[in-house]
Write a structure and sequence with these properties.
This protein has a domain at 27-79. The protein has a two-stranded parallel ribbon with strand order 1-2. Mean pLDDT is 70; it is low at 26-31. Helices cover 26% and strands 4% of the residues. Helix 1 packs antiparallel against helix 2. The chain has helices spanning 47-60, 68-79, and strands at residues 2-3, 18-19.
């Protein structure tokens, strides 16, 4: 078996098996923070920040619900408090509970 970077490459003879390997590097925390910042803290008594911290936890988790970009958006919005006007809109309800 011959290894080749792309299975439909014109230099691979028809009928020959092709092996491709994909590797991923596990990461912790948010990629854009590089582990240098603590998790955002909501402003006391702010309903918007309280919801944002829930969404941050939802998006920063692992599994199919993980969305680092959305988690960073929430963190930035919390850190930019007070909001006038907010840079992002929130869904009306809190995120669904983890399964």
């Amino acid at each position: 078996m011959r290894e080749h970077p792309h299975p439909h490459h014109p230099r691979v003879p028809a009928g020959e098996a092709v092996t491709t390997t994909a590797t991923t590097t596990p990461t912790t925390g948010l990629a854009t923070d590089h582990g240098l910042r603590r998790h955002p803290a909501p402003a006391p008594g702010c309903t918007v920040c309280a919801l944002l911290i829930e969404w941050f936890g939802h998006y920063a988790g692992t599994g199919p619900r993980h969305d680092a970009s959305a988690a960073v958006d929430c963190a930035v919005e919390i850190r930019n408090h007070p909001h006038d006007p907010p840079k992002m809109t929130l869904k009306r309800h809190a995120p669904p509970p983890p399964r």
